[in-house]
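Lecture notes, structural biology module. Today: joint structure prediction for complexes of two components.
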Amino acid sequence: QSALTQPPSASGSPGQSVTISCTGTSSDVGGYNFVSWYQQHPGKAPKLMLYEVSKRPSGVPDRFSASKSGNTASLTVSGLQAEDEADYYCCSYAGHNLIFGGGTKLTVL
Amino acid sequence: EVRLVESGGGLVKPGESLRLSCAASGFTLSNVYMSWVRQAPGKGLEWVGRIYIRTDGGATDYAAPVKGRFTISRDDSKDTLYLQMNSLKTEDTAMYYCTTYDNGCFIYWGQGALVTVSS
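The predicted structure, tokenised, for the full assembly:
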């Protein structure tokens, strides 16, 4: 199965909101409510930011939210802060597979 | 505190084998599904495979690029997860992360072990 489709880059100024899309198919994103999002800073391990489409683990700021419509999931970061600059990856359950998106580099201008 | 520490990475030649280990602490490994995720240099994340808990049969699933060459196993008595990698290819060069897995997501991550396959 092919990787989920994410825009290579996104940007916003401090305080603004930015949304990153993640498009799959009815066999992955559209077929299950098991979409998750990960933040990765350079040289660091990824960190789980959202799971089961829109649930936030303890400790993740509520500035991070996510949703899903059909075969497309979306991550929104509100009130952008400098420390939000990182790579973001979506991931979807697909039966016996897990599929990641190609990643989006978020730049805080 | 949950901690996952990978070891065993290194430089190998194409066709050779390597085994990664992941030492778990801060939780009971036998109760947790586990997974491996890799990241080639400068590239995105790629799921490698997962292993169920013993009471669910201890089954494994693998991504297509590694199926038949990689084997995930667990020794719950040692709180250790393994990734046996055989017939390595240059395209297997990556940082390999050990993760806990639940409901389609990877919750806790190790710091990674670098595997380089080159002649």
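Point to remember: The longest strand of chain B covers residues 94-102.
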